[in-house]
Amino acid sequence: MAKFLAELLGCTLPSKGASPMFESKSHSRVGLKSSTKPKTTIFSTLASEKSLSDCKKEQQWKPSVYSSITPVCFPSPLIEKPKGKESMPQTPPFSAMFDSSGYNRNLYQSAEDSCGGLYYHDNNLLSGSLEALIQHLVPNVDYYPDRTYIFTFLLSSRLFMHPYELMAKVCHLCVEHQQLSDPDSDKNQMRKIAPKILQLLTEWTETFPYDFRDERMMRNLKDLAHRIASGEEQTYRKNAQQMMQCLIRKLATLSQYEEVLAKISSTSTDRLTVLKTKPQSIQRDIITICNDPYTLAQQLTHIELERLNYIGPEEFVQAFVQKDPLDNDKSCYSERKKTRNLEAYVEWFNRLSYLVATEICMPVKKKHRARMIEYFIDVARECFNIGNFNSLMAIISGMNMSPVSRLKKTWAKVKTAKFDILEHQMDPSSNFYNYRTALRGAAQRSLTAHSSREKIVIPFFSLLIKDIYFLNEGCANRLPNGHVNFEKFWELAKQVSEFMTWKQVECPFERDRKILQYLLTVPVFSEDALYLASYESEGPENHIEKDRWKSLRSSLLGRV
């Protein structure tokens, strides 16, 4: 499975002790006890096909911070939400759908209900045909879908159909069923239904704006918005224009962000190449750029929050999308993805890990390498205190890479007590229990925050992906009767919506352009260059290392 996820995220799965994204420490560091017991890796055992209740039993120990609130931040409503039709129960909010351990435990203890192709237990929507779920999304004069349903269905529907196909169906239902195509239709009815349709479109464009990079999506959106705005009500026209302008701004901002990432990627070079043309004596290191660990942790948090902010919720689903089991020839995402923000974020994690390892292996003198290690330990500790767990794990991964961990003489000069504490917090055993406990603490702090600094929660990203992957793989998308397994998608939406809340936090720290420029653009060593620098600092210890050292000197330096 690790290989699958590596390919999925655009990463190359390395040999043991190499790439930080999927790495376990391959050498014991001096001063720490080594254990013969293998550590649990990030990608432990792939769950086999399980029932939904079995999936939840395995996760009972992991309570949700957001079990009592609706975490997704939606735009302000244009209308008051109606009570709903008596014959069709309204989708309850997350607080009603989930208890502290996930699914409502009373779901299987009441009589069965069905309504228009939808299946309920205790007024909770569990499953339905795809067509019935689409019908349930579209408002009418007396009904507007609950926002948690809108988010959950728009997120999960892409497992079964393209967003542009869903948009076409929604437009058809709105036009045909609500008589938007009839100029002589009841104006009173139009006044009731038009703002509801506009609100649905607004929520779609606000929460899933990247769907509208597809020209077919944008064409349908403009057509439906034009039908609504062509009425006599000036308010509808104004709101439709605001919706379109906001969407265009978001898409333009994304394009600018992608251009910046492409420019950074195109100018990146290997550190060894730079060293050949520039003497090491005048090379800068991270401490000369920023000698305060807390300041560096703040700037790392800037980068993390900026990159998180551009990840759309649909990217989690698109990353693991598979063919619809009822249509073997139909792959919902056979076309090219519209964004790769998730992959770019994973690449940032790997870059930071390699940057840490490079900065440690670069100095010629042992005391300078030891000082660099202690500096990054302090940076990691400040990241932990801020709630920036992704940078924390990237720094730990960089210090645990084999070229760094083999520097025994250097580590002997390092006071490792603080590092041991951080490693304990991020220990992967028991499914990262210590980390998950710390994450819950940070999430709770965010809920009761008195300052913007206390709101920051940046999760260890590869573990979040792993959790969503297991949920998708462990539970079927469809039930034996062909119904969509909506109970599974409530849980998927809950996990993604927590992330949505965290990513919308604005970084409260002052930006330092000089530090940010260094972190994002300074050349780093490749894996081979790291090993060569490590061997040059502390010589090979066995024949295997000696042979590799000679090979690297020959291939990278042209020396024998």
TrEMBL record:
Name this polypeptide is given: RasGEF domain family member 1B
Any one of the GO CC terms: plasma membrane
Taxonomic superkingdom: Eukaryota
Domain (Ras-GEF) ranges: 292-540
One MF annotation (Gene Ontology) recorded for this entry: guanyl-nucleotide exchange factor activity
Domain N-terminal Ras-GEF per the UniProt entry, residue ranges: 121-248
UniProt cross-references to Pfam families, sorted A to Z: RasGEF, RasGEF_N
InterPro entries assigned to the protein according to its UniProt record, in alphabetical order: Ras-like_GEF, Ras-like_Gua-exchang_fac_N, Ras_G-nucl-exch_fac_CS, Ras_GEF_dom_sf, RASGEF_cat_dom, RASGEF_cat_dom_sf
The keyword Thylakoid is annotated on this UniProt entry: no
PROSITE patterns from the UniProt entry: RASGEF (PS00720), RASGEF_CAT (PS50009), RASGEF_NTER (PS50212)
Keywords for this protein: Guanine-nucleotide releasing factor
BP-aspect Gene Ontology terms: Ras protein signal transduction
Gene3D superfamilies: Ras guanine-nucleotide exchange factors catalytic domain, Son of sevenless (SoS) protein Chain: S domain 1
